Amino acid sequence: MRYISTRGEAPVLPFDDVVLAGLARDGGLYMPESWPQISPRDLQSLQRLTYAELAARLLALFAGPAIEEAELAMLAEDAYRSFDGYPDVAPLTPLGGNLHLLELFHGPTLAFKDYALQILGRLFDLVLSRRGERITIVGATSGDTGSAAIEACRDREMLDIFILHPKGRVSDVQRRQMTTVDAPNVHNIAIEGTFDDCQDLVKALFNDAAFRDRTRLAAVNSINWARIAAQIVYYFHAVLRLSTGENRTLGSPVAFAVPTGNFGNVLAAYAARRMGLPIAKLMVGSNCNDILTRFFASGTMKIGPVFTTLSPSMDIQVSSNFERYLFDLYDRDSASVVGLMRQFRETGAFAVPAERLQQAGETFTAVRCDDAATTATIRAIYEETGKIVDPHTAIGIAAARSAVLPAEMPVVAVATAHPAKFPDAVEAATGVRPSLPERLAELMQRPERYEVLPADAGTLRKTIIGRLGGNWGTGREKGASS
Ligand SMILES: *Cc1c(COP(=O)(O)O)cnc(C)c1O
Questions:
Q1: Residue 26 neighbours by CB under 8 Å, 6+ apart
Q2: Which of 52, 231, 321, 359 can pair with 268 through a Cys bridge, CB separation 3.0 to 4.6 Å?
Q3: Over the stretch 46-67, which tens digit does the pLDDT of each residue have?
């Protein structure tokens, strides 16, 4: 598969280059040149595979010929072996009626981001060791992404990872999930400032071309196509499991409800649909940061202020992966995407005409769920089923429950985090304080390692160069860096 930029001006790249590329050089995002197709008969042949085998089979469609299925099979097996419930790492739980929960919190850091990042960390190592190159990952986190990225990159030979978090502004569990990781290539830095300061520092490093090339800076956020590709797997897995479990015909339509922030997770579901998976509807759940809900209602994407909510991983206004959907919605006309994105940057808004909005509405519906409704949903699910869900998951469930769909159609709500990651919100709703799984129980006793730095790019640069030691300057300059 070859990859093209949504903005049409960056070089076309094979998969292994896209893994390392991050943002395209024209500011766009990489997309596969075409959607691989899975016929109903292909779908049948996938039914008996384990999660890891399915991952290898589907990823091969995106990674070939640069990376072969046999290599992906070893990599996927290794990535998912440590998950709870292995080999069934993405179980489907009935919630009554036609509603099901797809549990994606059985990885090392208890959020769905593990499912893709555990693959991405290993892909980095594979591609870099072939080339004899190193990269330096630098990222800012307000919570979940940092720990998932650190777990995925720890002990990888060809890279160092630096994660910046705002000192004193992440929860104890979140900080400890990062700072108790004892690996020589993991570097935690607490910045004396806010999350925005951390992000500004990361941007400053990426904008320093000399530093960026010498350290071969790379990103792990969901603009990386490999993350989206790895997330497609669990949508296939869910549809395959639904049809074995209930004697439904494989190929009859299913709806998914996805709690959404950066539009990465739901974009993977959209990709699965384009590949032929029988998905009738995608329900996008948002918290009070409802820019997407407003877009799907009106056709206008208009930026607003960011509110703090019970679902902090969705406290986002600009969903960067939406650009990938827009590219398809405009029949892959990159000039239209460039125009809309420029308008958005300059005025904080863009609008699509009625016929495009109607087309989007054939795939997506969107639901806003404020904190009160989130709490009410956590409580209702607990009372009705005895199941405890986290606030992000509750928003997906609320979206699923508001769906207007044929009565017999299964609806799968995506559970994106373990409730013990957000114990306060869960306790307030149910009276029950969820506990961490056994393997994380001594998290609060393990020693922490992190360095405290002022919010100053020069100091950060020096610290990174010092930590890289002999590896400083060994990242060979390549065309697709960023
Ligand atoms: C990151 C995250 C989300 C949002 O996912 P996107 O891919 O950004 O839409 C939802 N829930 C949890 C728990 C997350 O960590």
A1: 5, 7, 8, 9, 10
A2: 231
A3: 999 999 999 999 999 999 999 9
